[in-house]
């Protein structure tokens, strides 16, 4: 019918359709040992490897997978490489927030046309399992979005990677997919990067938190959340705000030496099981005082879970108009106070736990004080 044709025509087309997060690649100091941590403590399975044994001379990369989450850990073997320089400056951290697309060439052209700084022109990689096209653009700091087109590929990860011969048996902890990835940017730069995601990548502004939402006695931050058209990709962007003492975002920027990925939130369908397992295996989480639980149900109303079980694991609860969520944050997973993980279970809620910000940030500030950085 003519009217439905008109409707279609007036609908804005998404110039950058994204199928989801393809993988997160970290540059680390010792990928072999980091891979052991993610296998034993987090239950990721080693599914692919590239390095000297596979003909790669300058680096070693380990691909770890749990359900839809793929982490790649890369260490350089060359003291003069850009990876080595990146690691010396930033420590262990996320270099590539790689997005799964159907057309890596169009993704590159559409974003570069709108002002993206190119990292990598569309390039085809090939092996006996097929072809993959990869392109890339810079985002905040030295972080890069790769666009990965893998519809003509059925290998374990990317061309050149092989299934490792003796991958250890692992027990998954129930992690399902990447819910959101948060970036910390320099003071005054948040709006610039929100505009980048809006104008260059076609994302929409979803939420805004100002220092009234997020300030504690000492420090404050500002945050805006952008999301792509289908909502699969959500990127909150934080910047420091004035407080009495050093903001947790400033601490990150000081130790990462620039803007970068602050945390990666991963979804579970059973947070009590997931966090129970992670704690047993030695993963450290932020601590929120038990008094948090005294009146939490007055704030969030009925929840399906046993409150005592959540309290025992120190899992936090928040509610918005669509439902509630359960969440907990690890301490930084490297010696610099930089990257950490969030475990989240969404029971309808689409937001990010604003009701927990105060309790959480007080907890982070206790940790900053322990480190002598407050
Ligand atoms: Fe988060």
Structure overview:
This protein has 374 residues and is α+β, with helices and mostly antiparallel strands. It folds into two domains: 20-149, 2,3-Dihydroxybiphenyl 1,2-Dioxygenase, domain 1; 175-371, Roll (2,3-Dihydroxybiphenyl 1,2-Dioxygenase, domain 1). 26% of the residues lie in helices and 33% in strands. The strands form two sheets. The chain has an eight-stranded mixed β-sheet with strand order 2-3-4-1-5-8-7-6. An eight-stranded mixed β-sheet has the order 10-11-12-9-13-16-15-14. The model is unreliable at 1-10 (pLDDT under 50). Residues 180, 182, 263, 265, 342, 352 line the site of fe (ii) ion. Fe (ii) ion binds at residues 180, 182, 263, 265, 342, 352.
